[in-house]
Amino acid sequence: MSFSCSVYGLGVQVNVPIAGLAGLPLPRQVDVRIALGSMPRCLEGVARDQWREYYLSPDRDDNGEPHIKVSRTQAGEYFRIEYLDGTVIVVDAHGSRVWATWPDPATVEDTATYLLGPTLGFVLRLRGVTCLHASAVAIDGQAVALVGPTGRGKSSTAAAFARLHYPVLTDDVLALVDEGDRFKVQPAYPRVRLWPQSVESLFGSVDALPLITPLWEKRFLDLNGRRYRFQREPLPLAAIYFLDERSADPLAPRIENVSVREGLMALVSDTYTTYLLDKPMRAKEFDVLSRLVERVPMRRATPSVDFSRISDLCALIIDDFRQKAPTPDRR
Fold it and tell me: pLDDT digit string (tens) for 213-224?
């Protein structure tokens, strides 16, 4: 039984339910159709030598095999993404169709861990949407982005904001709405994914939050309940905070200024699925980011190595944002 929802500003139709998308609004139109458990028939007769290598991830297993292999048909109509665990995802070049298969004992929910992040992130890029590698929370009716590479604590910080009753817009993939003179952030889906150590530090026990899937150790904070809130409508992007490495400095957490040049270089390195972009897509992205850094205040936030002080970091960001935030534009 198929279902439809709006996620990252896209109208998505999936042939089977995905738990992480529960509670999302119906779309006005279907932009992307996802078929789980099958591949496009038109590719059944396409030999391996008819695909050309597009990308190999630098991360390798003990045998030297890349964690991700991406290839593209010679004519360019389809991308094939192969993961080390045997999951295969095919995306058409227009970003309108997605197919996925997986090996036993994986399930739909295991495959959804790829779909809701990297795959839809790539679909957005194919459709011309710039995506930051960031989480975002709502403060005073405006979006505040938490940007940084993997391991900087974006999801943990977003979850800490949720504990303080601030709504979360997105976790890990931030889809921008480019309106020329301003930008908005699209809502993702009502979950924050967390590693066990973050769950234990934030909620007192690893078992305080449910597993995303039995085959993966990550857990999720449900934003559909009464206690933690999900921001369901797009909000104007009013500030960007780059999360720095955790510091043992007694003055941490602290916040510092970021120059336009520093901010631009950081954003260029922290856009999502950058490795899959071709030259025209990169050029368009650079134009978007150049305008973004001229219009949105940017700051560097340095967390403390003492994880128990993450609420202090949130309070510092809130206070700093309220001092420097522009007046909300209600257009």
Answer: 999 999 999 999
Sign, CA dihedral 202-137-264-313, equals negative
Given CA atoms 47, 51, 53, 57 in this order, what sign does their dihedral have? negative
Mind giving me the DSSP string for 110-161? Answer: HHHHHIIIIIHHHHHHHTT--EEEEEEEEETTEEEEEE-STTS-HHHHHHHH
Nearest to 169 by CA among 148, 142, 199: 142
Q: Looking at residue 56, what is its pLDDT?
A: 94
The answer to whether the bond into 214 is cis (omega within 30° of 0) is: no
Q: Which tokens belong to 207?
A: 């078992």
Q: State pLDDT tens for residues 197-240.
A: 999 999 999 999 999 999 999 999 999 988 999 999 999 999 99
Which residue matches tokens 């992040």?
117
Sorting pLDDT into bands at 50, 70 and 90, what band is 277? confident
pLDDT value for 330: 46
Q: Compute the Cα dihedral for 158, 163, 164, 165 and give only its sign.
A: positive
Residues in the chain: 331
Tokens of 266: 């950081």
Exposed / middle / buried, residue 226 (Cβ in 10 Å: 0-12, 13-18, 19+): exposed
Cα-trace Rg, the chain = 20
Is there a contact between 27 and 6 (Cβ–Cβ < 8 Å)? Answer: yes
* pLDDT value of residue 189: 97
Alpha helices in the chain (DSSP H): 108-114, 120-126, 154-163, 196-203, 260-269, 279-295, 310-324
Whole-angstrom CA distances from 170 to 25, 49, 188, 246, 303 are 15, 39, 5, 22, 20
